[in-house]
Structures are given as C-alpha cells and as structure tokens.
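Postdoc handover notes: sequence design on the structure in folder B. Input tokens:
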C-alpha cells in the first residue's frame, strides 16, 4: 500500500543525506539507474538482496515522485510507518536535542509563557555547550563578548516540529556546521565539525550534571559542581537547566544523533522540580567564584608608599566599575614595575586588561596585561608647573 506523503518534505530530502542514511544502515550503492538515479542493495535476513531506488538530483521534475516511492519502499522493508521514516530522513543532517516538559495537559499543550521560556532556555543550553567547544579550555562561567563561531552556530540552530507526549521541543543542530578559518588565525585541526563538537560537549556535560547533583549530599554544591567544570558544566548551563526544571514539573533532556553519523555517547538527563534549587544555587556559586575574562579597567593608581626596590608589584587602582568607583587590587609583572611605579607617583590615568575576580566587595584583577598610561594633557602639565 502506498501512503501519500507531504510533497514539500519529500522534495526537501537531500540525496546525499539519504545516501548517507542508507550506507549507515547497511545498504551499498550499486549501479546507476538512468542519468539521475542510483540503486542501493542490502542483503536481508532471508539471504536475499533487497533493492531500492533513489533519485540523485533534486532538479529533475519527478524527484518528489521517485522519492515518495523510495520512502514507502524503505518503510515496508524497515517495518515502520512511512511518516516515521520520512521524519528520520528529514533530520539526517541534524543532531536533535529534545526537551520534554512533563506538565503538559491531556491534549499535549503548555502555557504560552512556559513555552517561550522553554525555547529560550533550550537555546542557552546549546550556546553553553558551544562556548566550551570554541574555547581552549572550559570555564565555570561564560560572559562578555561571545565567540564569532558560537554566534554563527546559534544562528544555524532550528526548531523542529513540536511533538506531543508531555510537550517535546526538538532543537535541530546541524552536525556538520563549521566556519571557514580566519586568515589571521592559525588553522587548527579537529576530528569533528564544530556542530558535532558542540553536541558532544553537551552530551558529556549532561552526564556530569547528573553526577554533580547526586554528589551534592556528600560534597556540597560548590565542590560537586566545581569538579564538573572540566566536563563542560558551567553556571550558564546550570541556570538554563534550573530555570526549565523550576517552571515545569520536571524535564527530560535527550540527544538523538544524526543517523548518518551516530555516536556511542548517551545523552539523557531527567530533572525533577526539586533539582532546580540545586542547579540555580550551583549557577550562583560558579558565577561568583569565576573571574570575568578580558576585562579592561581604567582609573588612577593610588599612591605607592614604598620605594621601587622594596615594592612587591601590587597596586590599587581606583576604577569605575559598573558606574561606581571601586578599589581593584592588581598584581603587575617585573617588566611592568617601573612604568606602573612611575604612573602611581604621577597619579596618571591608566588602563589594564585581565581577569576580574569579585569576592563580595573585594575586587582583584588577575593575569594583568596590556598596561597603558594615558598621556597628560598640556593644560594639566601647565597647571602642575604653576603649582610647583
């Protein structure tokens, strides 16, 4: 029996993706069939060869017709509904992240506000994983300017058709996504495209999140989640997961690998509403203890009272932080010492980059670099000379 399928969905099937799906499932390309066809063969359980025909060009006028027959034939061989086979073929270019909210009503619906929040937090989950994939090493907290690669990846994400069954939101991540290397950056070699690196990070991070939650009773939130940072867990990920768990009666996050490039990694995290408070507390702690990278502070060095040869290289800069004057402790390298010492004595206006660590009201700039002394304006020099 031939089932009628959505013409547009069938027309949108990629011949390359379909061929990849077939090869992944044991089919082998055989002889051509005309100018725009290819026969695939696979031996069945009875020891006989099954044959199936696909069209190799979406430009031919009967592409949708040929591929509709193909989907029906494949569904009969696999013993599945044609609509289910078509859905799998449509998603062959994607890794699919599924968020299942448990508190849907009898018709599979949730409130509009919850749905909007669910989609937003799903995006934050993917971006948190992509940041880890793009960076040299994981961080406990991601903030500030985002990697260009991550922005482009976020733009490539798609939302699949919502599924019923406790309200399922499928986020489609193109596993082959990548960007051309910047000519000004060294060309790095990776085993996987960036899209797949991001979902692999997510799989590891979801597993580590469950382990951290389970370890909280023994180790406490700070220790348990600090240990999970190396696996890709961050304040951003915990905040997004905690938010979802708090607005729904639990959530199930899973990852379905592209059928053309499956992985052995299992990504499956089930959260209950009670887990939300742990995750949100973990997010708060990791945010507080994490230095803010690539931070520029500008201000005036407070007076250095010791002699240069006795100075330990640590200075206090009175800087404008979020609209308020704050004292920031900065340690300088030996190469910077003389210039910093002179700028302090002259009360010069300076700037310096580093990682800003905030502990309560105390601030410290770590790994200082790019120290700059602003030139004194002529009017200021004249006023200084008149004072003397």
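Designed sequence:
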């Amino acid at each position: 029996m031939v089932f009628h399928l959505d013409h547009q969905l069938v027309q949108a099937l990629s011949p390359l993706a379909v061929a990849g799906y077939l090869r992944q499932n044991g089919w082998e390309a055989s002889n051509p069939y005309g100018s725009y066809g290819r026969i695939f063969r696979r031996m069945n359980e009875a020891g006989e060869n099954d044959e199936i025909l696909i069209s190799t060009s979406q430009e031919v006028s009967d592409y949708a017709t040929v591929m509709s027959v193909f989907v029906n034939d494949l569904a009969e061989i696999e013993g599945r509904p044609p609509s289910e086979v078509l859905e799998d073929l449509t998603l062959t270019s994607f890794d699919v992240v599924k968020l299942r909210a448990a508190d849907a009503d009898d018709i599979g619906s949730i409130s509009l506000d919850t749905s909007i929040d669910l989609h937003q937090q799903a995006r934050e989950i993917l971006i948190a994983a992509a940041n880890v994939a793009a960076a040299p090493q994981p961080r406990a907290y991601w903030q500030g300017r985002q990697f260009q690669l991550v922005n482009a990846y976020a733009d490539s994400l798609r939302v699949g058709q919502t599924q019923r069954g406790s309200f399922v939101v499928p986020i489609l991540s193109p596993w082959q996504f990548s960007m051309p290397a910047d000519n000004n950056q060294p060309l790095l070699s990776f085993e996987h495209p960036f899209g797949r690196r991001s979902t692999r990070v997510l799989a590891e991070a979801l597993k580590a999140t469950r382990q951290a939650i389970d370890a909280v009773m023994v180790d406490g939130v700070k220790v348990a989640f600090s240990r999970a940072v190396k696996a890709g867990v961050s304040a951003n990920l915990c905040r997004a997961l905690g938010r979802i768990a708090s607005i729904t009666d639990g959530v199930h996050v899973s990852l379905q690998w592209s059928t053309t490039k499956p992985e052995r990694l299992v990504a499956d995290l089930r959260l209950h509403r009670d887990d939300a408070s742990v995750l949100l507390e973990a997010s708060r702690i990791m945010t507080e203890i994490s230095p803010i990278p690539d931070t520029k502070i500008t201000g005036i060095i407070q007076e250095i009272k010791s002699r240069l040869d006795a100075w330990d290289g640590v200075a206090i800069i009175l800087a404008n932080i979020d609209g308020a004057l704050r004292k920031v402790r900065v340690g300088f390298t030996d190469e910077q010492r003389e210039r910093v010492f002179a700028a302090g004595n002259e009360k010069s206006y300076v700037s310096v980059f580093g990682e800003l660590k905030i502990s309560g009201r105390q601030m410290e700039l770590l790994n200082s670099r790019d120290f700059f002394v602003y030139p004194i304006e002529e009017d200021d020099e004249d006023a200084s000379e008149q004072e003397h």
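Context for whoever picks this up: Residues 292-387 form a domain with the OB fold (Dihydrolipoamide Acetyltransferase, E2P) fold (CATH 2.40.50). Don't rerun without checking with the PI first.
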